[in-house]
C-alpha cells in the first residue's frame, strides 16, 4: 500500500507541474517520466547507486529504466526537477521565512581513510546549499546550489525572485547583514530581522528595519539548523554525483522529498 501511495503522489505531482508523460518526441516510447522520477526518488531516499536502485526495484516487481538511462535523465532533467520542487512549496501566505546556508560533502571517505592519507581537511571543497525555509510549515521554499563558496548575501536576490510567495518577515544570521539585503527586502515589502555585524552602524535601510526587531521572532531562525540536520540524517551528508548538473538535481530531489514527506 505504501508503494502504491507513493507512486500516486509522484503522478499527482507531475500533473500539477504540467510535465508531459514522456520527455522525448522520438525513439521507443517504453517508459514514462514518472517511472524515471520514481526511481530517482527511491535512489535518494535509500542512498543507493543507479545500479543498485534499478536492481532493487526490479526485484520488487517494478518496471523501471536501466541504470544508464536513469543517469542520463538525472543530468538532462535538472530544470524539470527544479520545477517539480517549486510545485511542492507554493503557498498563499508565508509569515516568517528563514534563510541560511550549509555545506554538503562531495565525497564520502571514512575517517580511517582520511587518517591514513594524513589529511586534516576534506578531500574536496564542499557543495554550498542555501535554503529559504517556512518556519511554520517546516518546508523548503527556495534553494540554491553552488560549486564554489561565495558570500551569503550573493544568493538573497536569486532566492527571493524564485519564491512563489513573498514572506512577511525574513530572519537570518549576521552573515546576511548588508545594506543591499535590507534594501532589496524593503522594496518587496519584507521586514528583515537580521542582527547587525560588529562595528556596523551605517545604512538607511538597516536602521529602518531595526524598528521592527523582535527577539522571539528572530529565534525562529534556529529551525533552519534543525532542518539541515534532519535532511542530512535522512538523505546523507554527501552527494556521490561528480558534475554540478547532477549535484543540483540531487539537491532539488532531496528538498522535494522533504517537502513531500510533510504532506498529510
Walkthrough of the structure:
With 264 residues, the protein is of the alpha/beta class. The protein folds into two domains: 2-76; 87-242, Nucleotidyltransferase, domain 5 (2-Layer Sandwich), CATH 3.30.420. The protein contains twelve helices and five strands. It has helices at 2-16, 33-46, 50-59, 67-76, 78-87, 111-116, 156-162, 179-187, 204-209, 215-218, 222-235, 244-261, and strands at 96-104, 127-134, 139-146, 169-171, 191-193. The chain has a five-stranded mixed sheet, with helices on both faces. β2 (127-134) and β3 (139-146) form a beta hairpin. It is globular, with a radius of gyration of 20 Å. The two termini are 15 Å apart. The mean pLDDT is 89.
- Strands, count: 5
The major beta sheet can be summarized as: 5 strands, mixed
End-to-end distance, in Å? Answer: 15 Å
Shape summary: globular
> How many domain regions?
2
Give me the number of helical elements: 12
| Uncertain regions spanning at least 5 consecutive residues | none
Helical content class = 40-55%
Name the CATH architecture of the largest domain.
Answer: 2-Layer Sandwich
Text of the CATH class of the largest domain = Alpha Beta
Taking all Cα atoms into account, the compactness measure Rg is 20 Å
Strand order of the largest sheet: 3-2-1-4-5
Question: Which descriptors would you attach to this protein?
Answer:
5-stranded mixed beta sheet, 264 residues, globular, Nucleotidyltransferase, domain 5, 2 domains, alpha/beta
Amino acid at each position: 500500500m505504501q508503494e502504491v501511495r507513493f507512486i500516486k503522489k509522484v503522478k499527482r505531482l507531475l500533473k500539477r507541474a504540467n510535465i508531459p508523460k514522456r520527455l522525448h518526441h522520438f525513439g521507443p516510447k517504453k517508459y514514462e517520466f514518472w517511472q524515471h522520477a520514481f526511481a530517482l526518488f527511491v535512489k535518494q531516499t535509500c542512498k543507493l547507486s543507479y545500479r543498485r536502485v534499478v536492481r532493487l526495484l526490479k526485484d520488487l516487481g517494478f518496471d523501471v529504466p536501466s541504470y544508464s538511462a536513469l543517469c542520463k535523465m538525472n543530468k538532462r532533467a535538472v530544470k524539470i526537477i527544479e520545477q517539480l520542487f517549486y510545485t511542492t512549496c507554493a503557498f498563499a501566505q508565508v509569515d516568517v521565512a528563514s534563510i541560511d546556508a550549509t555545506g554538503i560533502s562531495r565525497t564520502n571517505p571514512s575517517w580511517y581513510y582520511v587518517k591514513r592519507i594524513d589529511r586534516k581537511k576534506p578531500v574536496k571543497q564542499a557543495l554550498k546549499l542555501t535554503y529559504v525555509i517556512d518556519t511554520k510549515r517546516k518546508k523548503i521554499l527556495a534553494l540554491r546550489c553552488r560549486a564554489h563558496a561565495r558570500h551569503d548575501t550573493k544568493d538573497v536576490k536569486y532566492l527571493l525572485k524564485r519564491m512563489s510567495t513573498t514572506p512577511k518577515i525574513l530572519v537570518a544570521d549576521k552573515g546576511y547583514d548588508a545594506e543591499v539585503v535590507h534594501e532589496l527586502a524593503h522594496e518587496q515589502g519584507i521586514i528583515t530581522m537580521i542582527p547587525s555585524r560588529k562595528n556596523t552602524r551605517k545604512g538607511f535601510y538597516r536602521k529602518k528595519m531595526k524598528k521592527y526587531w523582535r527577539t522571539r521572532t528572530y529565534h525562529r531562525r534556529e529551525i533552519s539548523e534543525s532542518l539541515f540536520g534532519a535532511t542530512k540524517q535522512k538523505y546523507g551528508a554527501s552527494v556521490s554525483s561528480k558534475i554540478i548538473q547532477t549535484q543540483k538535481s540531487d539537491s532539488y530531489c532531496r528538498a522535494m522529498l522533504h517537502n513531500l514527506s510533510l504532506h498529510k
